[in-house]
Design a protein that fits this description.
heterodimer, A: alpha/beta, Pyruvate-ferredoxin Oxidoreductase, domain 3, Rossmann fold, 4 domains, 7-stranded mixed sheet, 6-stranded mixed sheet, B: alpha/beta, 3-stranded antiparallel sheet, 12 helices, 13 strands, globular, disordered N terminus, binds thiamine diphosphate, binds iron/sulfur cluster, binds magnesium ion
């Protein structure tokens, strides 16, 4: 643990330890938003249990004047509101840091450390004097600690007031009480502590043109803008909020002004098998459709994914990845469905995957996913994760080009069907492996019989070995075509790079910061962020250009490395894994220490 | 050879319907089912139904799961769109297609295995949504395509071809559907086309979920003595709850279909189903009474057929969901994309 430097202006971490279900989320969100509105780059991660009430939860706010978004291993200020976790929370504070606790009762014996400062505030006592009903007492205790922190961290009270005004515009009674609670806390802190602390916020101008948003909401906006009109789903954390957001957006932006009727159809299915069946049926019907899920749901969707691949129907599936099966860590993050998604289903199948790195990319890559699915006539899976999907990230505001029109790919509608001599659904007219399709109900000439693997170029039944081979070989041709359609990787070169690093998705923020630190230490590295599977040429070029490539990922089995070995020119000894898989988002420190260790081990061996 | 084209024998006397189409325009490719399979008779009944109703084939979406029964969409309406999906999941595919384009006519073909085992969940939930479709179960008491295992509709005491006796209670599709609140439930017999066709017509014209459970003997695995789904057993034990006529909206009720015990049931589009000689005052509009009556029949080993239940005030999925009538696949992008300015506004709360 490093020591807290005397002055850490706009560069520190506050962690709040709460009890689930006590309304702390809104208080913590208020804190983060205040810092953001003060123009200072900030991110927040929520660590919550699979529980509605009672279990411990944490909220970690990183203030970073340099705009880093990943976790770091140091905690400068702990707001310890949960006696159950006192011991761990205390231990986590960096030397020279602070711990804020509720001193309404005699200090807990566990709370003893000489190398940090303990700040006791009788929060419960204060609010209990002020408020009568038990629910208010719990809720306003949270708001009161926001008040305490506003004084300690030098937050702008006017900004807090403004946010509260916005939040409670329609509930004046609550608004007044909230203002009071903030005042209660800040008055106490100003009277009892030397405010502000050396860790504090100073206004900056670095958040203009940015938003603080979660990836699921951003992906939902992507669905809205891409023109998706049918969504089917079965609730599962951490993907649920994607459909919640889509529904809210549709109810606001997709109501027919004349009839008041919905220009969308959202179906809560009986399970994920039905959810993907509905999405697929809608795609056959000619609508842009999607289904959001997480690992367990993806497993259930396996059979239909194969059918979608062979019947060549576009489909967008969101897999907001979480840790492992069943109970245990469903509310923790991981990148552990890579292989399951890439090769989902039985038979010879391979699927297009996209890896957004943050909410901003969730928005843009979602739109791209729909276009790709239509162009390639195949399922496209957007693999985000709990960290991206459910945490608030700071990103540049999304922009929209009003000239955008969905690329529905090779579709013959009524007009086109009228003018063609004949229509064969699976005939590779253009030689790129992608055939022309039609929508049911448009025109008699567009009618065809859709079935699994046994079909001819004219969509007729066949069990003929040659015709089957021809079909799957054409699908391989289409896979080759896909390589030039999927988003390219992002290359970040450094002069005299000593090795390469490959990462994807939410690991990006940790990797970016780690590579800056390593460069400062004289270890510059090139970095390729992969954004899609199949891998395209740039991936092979990068591999060819580096003898050693560190592959950073958040799973145990090095799944992207596996995929690279299988699907690119990578050599086994060339790829060194940097893995993190405990369910929490990766910190930059982990990347740094793992790469350092590997470098020195290799150096020793050389 | 991959495609069996049907020899189209011209027949000058073949009647044309109002669209100028002949019955053969509603046919499909030659069936590959066993000769005598009940499923083929159902395909024939469907061909007649669509012909009589003057439906343009390309306005029909046929969906199915997996099984001998689920293969049959290839054997009727070859000019329609079809999706032979996966085992037990036809309802979800139909739901999705219906969401994308509610203007089409949806007919789903399933088997007793496809529906009552692997697809039981989707079946019940399609009913719960009152999805606007005709759902046809070609019910033979066995898994035909996997060679004769008992299905969940096999009766207690019914024997398999090699003598094995089924001792598990059956799941009755019609009873289940009524219990789940299906808005149209009928039962027919593949061997009685005269009764079947009006029931199918009603199912297609009904707005909402319409189940037609059709006893359809499997000649290869379940037509022996001891089977309760054989032709012989069904002929002996089925009886019509009522006689059924289908009357299209514009048609007059003719003298021949008039009668003393006539009960007309009106469908959403103005068509009527006329019920005559109704058994013991059976009322297919009374859910609880229908359920009780049919449950008793089941316990007695009787197979009542006809229109078992109908909710004349059926409100289908889209009506309840407030979906716009324009098929969603026809909405212009401008009508569903809010545009750049709206995005900037939308992001306001995240600033
Ligand atoms: C997931 C899956 N499991 C099992 C099968 C094998 N299978 C094919 S058809 C069938 C049973 C069909 O029975 P039924 O629906 O009654 O149709 P029938 O052949 O009797 O008309 C089974 C189990 C399959 N195709 N898919
Ligand atoms: S096995 Fe039975 S159900 Fe299948 S085609 Fe033959 S008779 Fe019909
Ligand atoms: Mg069967």
């Amino acid at each position: 643990m490093s020591e807290t430097t005397p002055q850490r202006v706009n560069d520190f971490v506050v962690k709040l330890a709460n009890v689930n279900g006590t309304g702390s989320a809104s208080a913590n969100g208020l804190l983060m938003k205040t810092i953001f509105r003060m123009g200072v780059p900030v991110t927040a991660k929520n660590f919550f249990p699979s529980n509605i009430q009672g279990l411990p939860t944490w909220y970690e706010i990183r203030v970073s004047k340099d705009g880093y978004q990943s976790r770091t291993d140091r905690i400068d200020l702990m707001v310890a509101m949960n006696a159950q976790t006192y011991a761990d929370d205390l231990a986590e504070v960096a030397v020279g840091g602070y711990l804020l606790y509720d001193s309404s009762w005699p200090r807990d014996r566990q709370l003893k450390r000489d190398d940090i400062q303990l700040l006791g505030v009788p929060l419960a006592k204060m609010v209990n004097q002020k408020y009568e009903d038990p629910r208010s007492r719990i809720l306003f205790k949270n708001i009161a600690y926001v008040g305490v922190l506003s004084a300690l961290l030098d937050l702008d009270l006017a900004v807090i007031d403004q946010i509260l005004d916005e939040l409670f515009a329609r509930k004046p009674g609550l608004l007044e009480a909230n203002h009071q609670a903030v005042g209660l806390g800040s008055d106490y802190a100003l009277a009892h502590f030397a405010c502000p602390l050396p860790i504090r916020v100073e206004p900056m101008d670095k958040t203009k043109g940015h938003v603080v948003i979660d990836g699921n909401t951003a992906a939902a906006m992507g669905c809205l803008y891409a023109g998706a009109s049918v969504g089917a789903w079965y609730p599962i954390t951490p993907s649920t909020s994607l459909m919640d957001a889509f529904k809210a957006l549709c109810e606001r932006h997709r109501i027919d002004p004349e009839t008041g009727k919905n220009r969308f159809c959202i179906i809560q299915a009986e399970d994920e098998l039905a959810a993907i069946g509905m999405a697929l049926g809608a795609s056959w019907g000619g609508a842009r459709s999607f289904t959001p899920t997480s690992g367990p749901g993806l497993s259930l969707m396996g059979e239909f994914l194969g059918l979608a691949y062979f019947t060549e129907l576009p489909l967008v599936v969101f897999d907001v990845q979480r840790s492992g099966p069943s109970t245990g860590l469903p509310t923790r993050t991981q990148q552990s469905d890579i292989i399951a998604a890439a090769y989902a289903s039985h038979g010879d199948t391979r699927h297009v995957l996209l890896f957004p790195k943050d909410p901003e990319e969730c928005f843009y890559l979602t739109v791209e996913a729909f276009d790709l699915a239509d162009r390639l006539q195949t399922p496209v899976m957007v693999l985000s994760d709990l960290d991206i999907g459910m945490n608030d990230w700071m990103c540049p505001e999304f922009k929209w080009d009003d000239n955008y029109r969905p690329d529905r790919g090779k579709v013959l509608r009524k007009k086109e069907l009228e003018s063609v001599d004949s229509f064969s659904r699976y005939l590779d007219v253009d030689g790129d492996g992608i055939c022309y399709r039609s929508y049911p109900g448009d025109h008699p000439r567009g009618a065809y019989f859709l079935r699994g693997s046994g079909h001819t170029a004219h969509a007729k039944y066949t069990e003929d070995p040659d015709e089957y081979t021809e079909l799957v070989d054409r699908l391989s041709r289409k896979w080759e075509t896909a390589k030039s359609h999927v988003p390219e990787p992002v290359l970040l070169s450094r002069k005299q790079a000593m090795a390469g690093v490959i990462a994807y998705g939410s690991s990006d923020s940790a990797v970016q910061e780690a590579l800056d630190r390593l460069e400062e230490q004289g270890v510059p590295m090139d970095y390729l962020r992969i954004r899609a599977f199949p891998f395209n040429e740039q991936v092979d070029e990068f591999l060819a250009g580096h003898d050693r490539v560190f592959v950073v990922e958040q799973n145990r089995d090095a799944q992207l490395r596996m995929l690279l070995l299988n699907e690119s020119a990578a050599r086994r000894e060339q790829l060194i894994s940097v893995l993190h898989y405990n369910g929490f988002p990766m910190s930059c420190d982990i990347v740094i220490t793992r790469i350092q260790a590997a470098m020195s081990a290799q150096g020793a061996a050389a | 050879m991959s495609y069996i084209s049907k020899p189209r024998v011209g027949h000058p006397t073949l009647q044309r319907n109002e669209l100028g189409l002949r019955q053969r325009d509603y046919e499909g490719t030659i069936s590959t089912l066993c000769a005598g399979c009940g499923h083929d008779s159902i395909s024939a009944a469907l061909i007649q139904t669509f012909f009589d109703l003057n439906i343009e084939p390309y306005r029909v979406a046929k969906t199915s799961g997996i099984g001998c029964s689920s293969k049959t969409p290839a054997y009727f309406l070859s000019q329609s769109h079809a999706f032979n999906s996966v085992h037990g999941r036809m309802p979800s595919v139909t739901m999705g297609a219906n969401a994308a384009n509610s203007s089409m006519i949806f007919v789903g073909i399933s088997g007793d295995g496809d529906t009552l085992s692997i697809g039981m969940g989707q079946f019940c939930h399609a009913i719960r949504r009152n999805l606007n479709m005709a759902y046809i179960i070609e019910n033979n008491g066995v898994y035909g395509l996997t060679k004769g295992q008992f299905s969940a509709s096999a009766d207690v005491g019914s024997t398999a071809k090699k003598g094995e006796v089924n001792n598990q209670k059956p799941i009755d599709a019609a009873l289940t559907a009524i219990n789940q609140g299906a808005s149209y439930v009928a039962r027919g017999f593949s061997g009685d086309r005269q009764q079947l066709v009006p029931l199918l017509k009603g199912a297609l014209r009904h707005k909402g979920f319409a189940l037609v459970d059709i006893i359809s003997p499997c000649v290869t695995f379940n037509d022996h003595q001891g089977s309760t789904k054989s032709y012989a057993h069904t002929r002996e034990h089925f009886h019509q709850l009522e006689q059924t006529d289908f009357v299209a909206p514009a048609e007059e009720i003719t003298a021949s279909s008039e009668g003393r015990d006539l009960t007309p049931v009106t469908l959403h589009d103005g068509s009527r189903i006329l019920l005559r000689n109704v058994e013991n005052g059976y009322d297919p509009r009374d859910q609880a009474a229908a359920f009780a009556y049919l449950k008793n029949c089941q316990l007695r080993g009787e197979i009542p057929t006809g229109l078992l239940f109908i909710d004349e005030n059926s409100i289908d999925f889209h009506e309840r969901n407030n979906t716009i009538e324009t098929p969603l696949n026809d909405l212009a992008h401008e009508d569903i994309c809010p545009g750049a300015d709206a995005l900037a506004n939308m992001l306001g709360r995240y600033r």
